[in-house]
Amino acid sequence: MSSRSGEIATILTRAIMGQRLTPGAKLGERELAEALGVSRIVVRQALIRMAEDGLVTIERNRGAFVSRLSLQETLQIYEAMTVIEQGAAALAVTRVGTTAWAAIRRQAELQRQAAHDSNHGLSDHLGIGFHFDLVRLAGNRVLEDMHAQLTRRVTLLHSIYRSEFDQCALADDHLRILDLIEKRQLKKAQDLIAEHNRVIVKGFFLEESEAKRPLPLAEAIAPFLATPA
Amino acid sequence: MSSRSGEIATILTRAIMGQRLTPGAKLGERELAEALGVSRIVVRQALIRMAEDGLVTIERNRGAFVSRLSLQETLQIYEAMTVIEQGAAALAVTRVGTTAWAAIRRQAELQRQAAHDSNHGLSDHLGIGFHFDLVRLAGNRVLEDMHAQLTRRVTLLHSIYRSEFDQCALADDHLRILDLIEKRQLKKAQDLIAEHNRVIVKGFFLEESEAKRPLPLAEAIAPFLATPA
DNA sequence: ATCGTTATATTGGAATCCAATATACATCAA
DNA sequence: TTGATGTATATTGGATTCCAATATAACGAT
Predict the structure, then answer these.
(1) Of A83, A214, B113, B134, whose CB count within 10 A is highest?
(2) GO MF terms on file (chains A, B) (predicted)?
(3) Nearest nucleotide relative to A39: CA against C1'
């Protein structure tokens, strides 16, 4: 990112994705400017960027807050993600057999291993990566960017709801999706993608997590200040 | 829009969509600030917004320009639009028979009339509206917004390439798409959507239009200064 | 004509200032 | 005590001014 405000936006986005800034948190300009060592203007520009992305909500004369997702918005985001992933699956058919295809398959199997070994952290990480990689297989940057944006927005959910997933089932789904695409059973693959995402959404709303105590702003962003490549 | 920069962004977006600001046009901060009667800061924030949207490209220390679309980007945008419209079609199946459905059907038939009467302007207008309405039928705001963004971006093409479409064929496609959805032949409907969009893309690249002389900035945005509701 | 140098203009950003307004606080009435 | 009202304060949105970095243009020398 060549601009200061872009860097700031990246830092704040990381803080949100890392669940150190949770929905509803106030993002005061002065406070952020001080914590980040930049002027208010740059902070504001960063917040505008993030508002455009949907991660932040700016209220006139009240300031910026980490966005809250309504139930309806959540459902619509997941529905949109499903649409994109289904489309990506259709486009990815032509990629079967490439090295990229082999890679995603390997990852999916690693995830299955991790899930069966109850390595929740790794399994979760690989699971998220799968959806990413599937879209990347489509070879369409525009689609990829839109999907990434939706992914960022649903991260807001993780900060509120604590979900209990059947990691094994999810990992198995991933492998089955790949199988179906390989066998050119696109319709079935797309149906499974839809079902798979429905399960994920349901997982979120089964139980609401205890409210996490919000961190002080400066503390929340601290780990992300050093901007590694 | 509650913020000044949002209003400015809207004005500039309209100017681009109205093809008064064409790809490559320099959007000088000072010049715009003067023409719009606001400070440079607000203009910059507006440009940042639009850059996030893809309509504007900001180059470090060089300024903002109306984005140019590469051939590859164009293809990917249309591919993404196709994916979204196909997904929307799937979701719209449940809307068959509603008043909204009747409305889009009426519009599509109006377009066919206009096309057969060689009323190019009206036909074109209704044709664009069709794709919009189809996505709106899905009842998913997130999907709708993404589609609208892609639509804004492809407008950049209109400013460069002059296309010769077979308006009648396009209008007929629209009606056939509706027919297929009504008959629950989703796969065929989606295939037709894909083919339909492929034809549109091809139409753009058949012949390059004469270069339009760029308007002076102030003149370009003049018609959009009065912001009607 | 080509290359290097200088001059100029523009951007990116900081610091300061101010109006509008939302929130908090205090005061007062029931 | 509780509710309503008015005041104080803090924050935002924006304007203005200033400056460094740098890209572009103008210019001159070879």
Answers:
(1) A83
(2) DNA binding; DNA-binding transcription factor activity
(3) C14
